[in-house]
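REQUEST
  id: r-88c1
  op: predict_structure
  target: Tubulin-like protein CetZ
  payload:
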Amino acid sequence: MKLALVGFGQAGGKIVDSFVDYDSRTGSDIVRAAVAVNTAKADLMGLENIPNEQRVLIGQSRVKGHGVGADNELGAEIAEEDIDEVQGAVDSIPVHEVDAFLVVAGLGGGTGSGGAPVLAKHLKRIYTEPVYGLGVLPGSDEGGIYTLNAARSFQTFVREVDNLMVFDNDAWRKTGESVSGGYDEINEEIVKRFGILFGAGEVEAGQEVAESVVDSSEIINTLSGGGVSTVGYASEEVEERSSGGLLSRLTGDDGGSDGLDTAHTTNRITSLVRKAALGRLTLPCEIEGAERALLVMAGPPQHLNRKGIERGRKWLEEQTGSMEVRGGDYPVSGSGFVASVILLSGVTNVPRIKELQQVAIEAQDNIDEIRQESDENLDSLVSDDEDELESLF
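RESPONSE
  id: r-88c1
  status: 200
  body:
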């Protein structure tokens, strides 16, 4: 699937920068264009893989390149005011070669959480291609203002995109881990999962062709209908062997010592499907009730077979209760691992979102109280008791 990526804000820009690096390292060829948008000049300068001409600094007349300081209302205002500057960068994207737009943002800060929904709304108004969002939730230890920002941005973002894929930092940060090291690792986890998902079906000349192709239309159909999506992933190292062709892929027997046992291959696939669906999702949730699902099995072709993928797909149908469960393989010769990636779309039983909203409501009430108390304290400080002083004007 060919994507035009737009990273909005610090987190969004870094994730898109990592996507470009992943695309180069793996040769997956999913990133057709990449743009980074920010109100902070330093954040744009810190990127390594997005071309300089595709880095857009907005809000210079308002914040002078210093960011919006976690004020996502200001972030949204600046995005509205400077949308033509962002469009100037988007105009250089060969849209006729793109299957979809993906707007990436951290939802806890100011620029990304405020600006990403504005950009998504703008892109949907102009282009016929789907516009998806990838939103990153802040950790619960990052503070009330970031939680409040995330809750408000999530509510807005999900309404402006064709589907919002969510990654929850709270489920992925490790205890005692440094902030920079933790986020670098998290970004790698993000691009690995979504890289395999969107890379399925992108076959170059001379590359192994999937037995059951997962192309862009399968992904688009799974994401259709809007709502919120999460992605599961599980992998296992395997010993790479020479492929015996289609027959060995289906039977596990190429007539030589390198033949793989079909039952073992099938069991490995079904086991990885279960681990991906029931393990750590990008957004933890109950998978029952998911409206649609897509299974992608990636790895050396001789370690993939139709029977295992079909069993995994049927198991997903049973677990989700959905009749819209698609599946296929993504052969990657020489990868050294077999991986299962599961996209669950239209999930609704998400305790983390409800918790986020409740904490945000409490934070909003506290902020209002603090502001009112601050106004009262200031008034008592500057006013004289007898009200004998007159202000200058």
